[in-house]
Description:
53% of the residues lie in helices and 20% in strands. By secondary structure, it is of the alpha+beta class.
Amino acid sequence: METLDQVIFTKIFKIAPEPIFITNLSGIFLFVNASMAKLLGIDNADDLIGQSEYDYLPEENKYFLTEKLLEIKQNPHTIQTILKKMKAQDGRIVEVESVATGIVSGNLIYRVVFARDMHLRRSLEYALDLREKNLRQISYLNSHVIRKPVATILGLISIIDKANLADPHNAELLSLLEKTVHELDSIIHQINQNTQA
């Protein structure tokens, strides 16, 4: 019968959004979550159980895995951060950043690996950079471009003869005020478009 800790671990492991897997020191998959299976293009995580991690590495990375497994065997508490390539089931190469460490259970040592799809990470970083650029542009527009028509509107309002609204000079000022309001409206539309980009 499973303990509460085992039940909790299993549930967290299975639903984690980040790819996670556990191997023995020969590189055989013992546990694989759905996110890791998806990263490798496999529908069912259980299909990976018993397979070798070596089968999902390009040739140039296989020796590197052997070194890392040996390092964990010698020092199970070491933490390894690795940037490596893995081979998905369809043959495409997936760049993965992983953090691995050993887990000791009795006289056995297992390797747990938390992986991150670097393509996804770079896509998110690009989206964040683009958003930041848009925000900087909006900030510039707010502090510089909008400031001009607002200052003009405030200036025109201050010189309109409010005591004598029929003054012919007021008509000219109101025309300039209307033109400036349209200019401000155009700038605000531009900012709205940048916000939605």
